[in-house]
Structures are given as C-alpha cells and as structure tokens.
Amino acid sequence: MDPELWEAVGHDPVRLLGEVSPERLSLLAVDRRFLRRLQDAADDLNEYLTAPRWYQDLDDAPDAVAYFSPEYGITAALPQYSGGLGILAGDHLKTASDLGVPVIGVGLLYRHGYFSQSLSPDGWQLERYPTFDPNGLPLALLRDQDGAPVRVTIGLPQGRDLHAQVWLAQVGRVPQLLLDSDVEDNDQAARDVTDRLYGGGGDHRLLQEMLLGIGGVRAIRAYCRISGHPAPEVFHTNEGHAGFLGLERIRELVSESGLTFDEALEAVRAGTVFTTHTPVPAGIDRFPRELIHKYFGGVNEEPDVPVDRVLALGAEDYADGDRTVFNMAVMGMRLAQRVNGVSELHGEVSREMFGGLWGGFDTAEVPVGSITNGVHAGTWVAREVLDLAAREVPDVVESSRGWEGVRDVPENEMWRVRRTLRERLVRDARRRLRESWRQRGASGAELSWVEGALDPDVLTIGFARRVPSYKRLTLMMRDPERLRALLLHPERPVQIVIAGKAHPADEGGKRLIQDIVRFADQEDVRHRIVFLPDYDMDLGRSLTQGCDVWMNNPLRPLEACGTSGMKAALNGGLNLSIRDGWWDEWYDGQNGWAIPSADGLAAPDRRDAIEAGALYELIEDHVSVMFYDRDPAGLPRRWLEMVKHTIVTLGPKVLASRMVRDYVHDLYAPAARSGRAMAAGDHAGARALAAWKQKVIKAWPGVAVEHVETSGEESPHVGANLPVRVVVDLGGLDQKDVAVEVAYGRVDDTDALVDPAYLELTGGDPVENGLLRYVGEVPLVRSGAFGYSVRVVPRHPMLSGRAEMGLVALPPPPHGMTNGDLR
C-alpha cells in the first residue's frame, strides 16, 4: 500500500491503515494489479482460517486447549514480551493456528509493555516505558451479546475488588485473551496491576499472577459462552506465573459440581500440563507465605478453597526446601499430572531441581519429561530464503525428496541469498547505531564513521539475548587484545553484532552491557563490533537472518533451550555454542561448532578463562578459516556444505510445527483422555481416585519390605536368570493397590544402580502374620558389575506413572545386593 510509510510505522499494520493518505487509497482503489493481489491475499486468508488442517484429521484429540503465559511475542506491533518465554509463547500460538489446533491463548495486557532500552553517553542502560493505547493496537474489546464490555472480578482483602476488561487478539485461527486492569471500576492501585511486564514485586507481582490465573479462567468461560468456542479440555500452564488457574478450576468444581477439594484436585490435575522454562532457581517466583495468607485467607478466604490447602500446594516441604516461602512452580507441578522441560538436557536438570517433590525415587524416575522448543518459520525465516526454497525445493517438508533436497540447491544461489541478508543486517545495524549515538548526545558531524561500520563481505557473528550473568555477555572480552586481533585480522576479519537487555533491577547485568559498549566505542574497533540497543522481535529477526554465525556461551547447564540459534540455522547460519539447551541435543559435529565446556570447575574465573580460550581458538582456527576459504568462483564450498547439512538435519527438528505436534500427541491428547475419565459419570473417576489416594496415603506408613532372598549359582553368568523372592507387609492395602518391583542393572563405583530396568514380581501368596510373598526371575543380560533392589509402589490405572504420588517402600539398608562381575 505504501512501502515507505510501512517502514516509518515500524511494520505496524494498524498504524499503516490509519496513516495512509486518502489520495493513496483513491489510487489503490482503481489499481487493478493491486486489487488482484488484495483479492488473492483475502482468498488465501479465508482458506487459512476456514479449511481443515492437520489437527482436524486427528481422532480423540481435545476439543480445545487453554494456553496461559505471562508474556507473548506475537509481533513487534504488539509489544507484550521481554524475552525467550514470550517469543516461544507467540510461536506456539502461531503454529497452533497453522496446524488447526484449537488453542485459546490467555495473558495480560501491559499498558507499558516491557521497557524500551537506550544508552547513556557512558554506555549505561536506560529504561523508558512507553504507553500503549489498546485502541491503536490490533485488539478488540470482548463484549457480551448486549454490547457491554466483559468484566472479570477477583476479590481482594479489605473488601476491595480487582476488575479487568478483556481484549481479544486474533492470532490467525487462535483467539488470544488479554486481561487489562486499567478500568474505571478499580482504584489506582488496582488499575496499575497490569501497568508493566515483570514490574514491581511482592503484592504487585502476586496480583498480576492472580489475575492471569484466576481471572484468565473466568475470561475463558465468558469467551466460550459468547463465541460458542468449545470449552478447553486441557489447560497448559506456560511457567509458574499462571499457576493459580488450578485453584480457580478447583473452586468451580467444588461450588458447581459438589466435589470435595481432593476430588476437584484430581479432576484438575488430570487435564493440566505444566511447562517449566528455567533451570535456575532464581527464575522461579516465590512469595512469603504470609502474603499468600493475606490474599487467600481471612475474610478473603474462599470456603471451597481453604487457605491451608492453597499453602500446602506451594510449600517447599521437602529436603533443602525453604519452609517460609510459597513456590509458584511447585504449586504448578502439584496441580498438573504432566510436567515437561523444554529440551532433553533441561528435562534432566529439572528432574534434579524438583526431585524433592517425588522423594524416594531416583532422579531418572522423577515424572518431568521434555519437549524441545521450536520456532515459527513464517515469523523468523527471511523471505529470500523462503523464495529460494519454493523455487529449488518446492514443498520441502512434504515432498518426496524432503529436506534432503536442500543439498541440491546451487551453491551460488545460496551464497547470493546469504550475502543479501548480511548486507541488509549491515544497513539495519548502521541505522540503529546512528540513532543510538544521537540519543547518547553525539552530533551528526561526529557520526560520519557509521557509514563504514560493519562490512557486508566480512564474517558476521551475532550474539543477542537477555543479560543475566549466566549467559556471559562479556565472555568474548575475556582477553580484549585477542578479541581485537580477531576483529582486525588482515586476511580473515570478524565482525560481531551484539544486542541484549538487562532487567531494570539487575545492576550486574547493566555493568556487563556497559563493559561491552565501552569496548565497542573504541575508535579502532567500532567498525567491527557494535552493540545495538532495544533488542526486540524486529532486531532479533534482522540478526538471526543476517548473521553467518550465531554465538551462545552460557554457563552449562543453565540455558533451558535457547531458540535464537534455531532461527539462525533455518536462515543458513551456523551455530557456535556451548553444548547447552537444544544444541546439546542436536549438535552432530558437522552443523556448527561446540565450544568445550569446563563443567565442574569450582573456580568460575578459571572456567571462564578456559572456555573463552576455546572460543577464540575456534573462531580463529576453524570458523574464519572455513568462511574465507574460497574456490576460483569466489564460493566458500566447505562452508556452504555445512550450511546445507545444517538445514537438512536441523530443519525438521527446530520447527515449532514439530514442537506443537509433540505437545498434542505426548501431552494434550493424554491429558484430555485423563480429564474425560475423571469427569465421566458426574466425576465418578475423580471421586474414586481421590478416595483411593487417601486410603493409600493413610496406610502407607505400614507398607514394608520384610525380607528379600535370591537363589541360584554363586557366580551367575550372562544369559541366566536370578530368582528373587520378597516378603512384604501391605499395611492393610489390597494387592491390586501396589506393585512389588525389582530394579536391576549395572552399578557404579558407589554400588548405585545406573539406568536400571524394572521387573514386576508376581504371586502375592499369603505367609505368616498377614505377610505376602512375591517372586520373579531377573534376566542377567550383560556382563560387568550388577546389582538389584526391591521396592513397593502404589499402582492405579489413573496414575500417570509409578512416581506420581511420591510414595515408595524400600527394604532396610542395604537395599539390595551387588553380585560382583557377571561373566
């Protein structure tokens, strides 16, 4: 409609439509070519919104899924995100739309969003909170049939109420509900609840999370009533911020369906998925217990949701837990039957981190799985890359050649596109650099050097992310002279484009930014290394599309996933990263470079020195050498082979379509089945399971392994079986309530079982004094050190696994035996 205006309004379609001139509209109205394109776009959109898609061919899938997140990175024109959590949530909604998954997104509308970042003259981060008018955003108020705006209300102490209106954004096929407390019905304190993302603390943060969770469920009920959208069968909690949604659903079931709290808890857990996104305890919201009591107890207490039950859900009542705090992630996990991390390594870290909730079970059995994040190609992949793929590898995902067809793309075409994207990044970086220096007080006469900053033919490394200390923004500056030598190398120069925001309260993160800015300000290197302020989706897209190499050097294993490197890979960039998050899982030795990690070193300074040295060596002796190794046609053949291999091997893995399909098959569909089983027959399943659990919990102190014995050869051989007989006391429980198992396998130097297998014993024959005997034969399938242990665990068809209740009975020490080396 108006390309220049499109750039001027920052690619905001609502602003564009509001500011395009009447004269321009009159011209377009009689422009046949434009009208044909407009009609084609409208037809494509109608097809996208109405035609059946992947999900519509599935059997037994949920009618709808509610997806709760405190932030969403849908588009730069709707700035309601701070970093990776929000970008992931936005990609999840957009991909659900692409696949036809009936998701309803729920979040908050922050009038000031996250902050806009600029720099002071000496390089210190400055924050500004612009005000957004929802009427100027791609939003519409949710209204009832009579046209009145929908309101949700939450009771507060001292007889106050928190009211919120609901804005509706249409993310393709997916409705997104955003709650906004800036309404006249509220006092000023309540109006400010949704003032800014991750602002304030204490009461303010708690009120945001109450509004998101409790108010979000109420908003969904109103939306489904008004629109006719199917009610969600599954509720997905994206991190602990929305955990209170479980309390509201319990309240509904108790007050409307007559269930007890315990029965409602089982019904809610069955249909809830909880995703944790942090491997860092500091990333979890924890509130003083007194604050929870203030808002959920006293005169504000809901009779159907007693405050002591609320406090118990978030209690760190396990070894090494803090008894004085209420942990939102712990509550989220107790309210969800299915829990996952966001990469395989993060799943392992989460099992360690939250293992106390399932005490008595080995870490490997802690019921926290993983689904590795993905990225939305339509958002992050450059148009030039998509056009090249459409021309050279049509229907790359569905074609018979599949992703392997990328290997046949002509190298010169691939290199041409990569050069185009690098050049675009250089232009964008120069523009942003000039604006930043002007904000810092420089005059136009002082900025002539900016036109020579960066070079579209120089190896370009990108580094952009939030700036907590564990992401190590300044690791590249560990040896400033060595970095300078890399940047200014006469034959193989390197240029680095850096962006990132520190939390407004993180003085340490701001110092890191200042350190990097001061280095980049030096006249001899400022054309080779730049820091670009105000990292957002637009800048992130420019960087991941234009950089040749995406660098990531967190302290392993503190990066949960790290999806920016996925975006770079889809655009033909190579990764240079510590093996953390997704890179630990999918690095294969040919799709980039792994920075060696000095895990286990107690001295952080020494670890940084070792890893920085490895980083310099990789860039100098491997990355830059390969980039500048050109054939007679000027093409870096070996580099382009790596690019092709990267796209072929990572392409199908890093797409958010793979991620959302995994959620549907592995979590949403099973959760829906469990929820239906709980709800059937006036919630007979929930009532029965709650009663059974109470019976088991009451009897469990009396469950014991009384005697274990084996027979057979003194030195058993591989291929033989080891007979095991166990005598147990079930403490009054029925045999069908438990499983008696042998865990067996190889043992380490401490006689601990490593990756054990499990065999359920049979029998249950009575012996004296009400005891029961169970028997079985353990197969001896491998040589080496071998051991076994016996245990009793609860068993019920509606449990998600053996460890769900955290109950296990073991024999007195030693819990088994080590049989030496099998031969």
Automatic annotation (TrEMBL):
Its cofactor is pyridoxal 5'-phosphate. It catalyses: [(1->4)-alpha-D-glucosyl](n) + phosphate = [(1->4)-alpha-D-glucosyl](n-1) + alpha-D-glucose 1-phosphate. Its EC number is 2.4.1.1. It holds the Pfam family Phosphorylase. Keywords: Allosteric enzyme, Carbohydrate metabolism, Glycosyltransferase, Pyridoxal phosphate, Transferase. It comes from the Bacteria. This is glycogen phosphorylase. It comes from Actinomadura fulvescens.
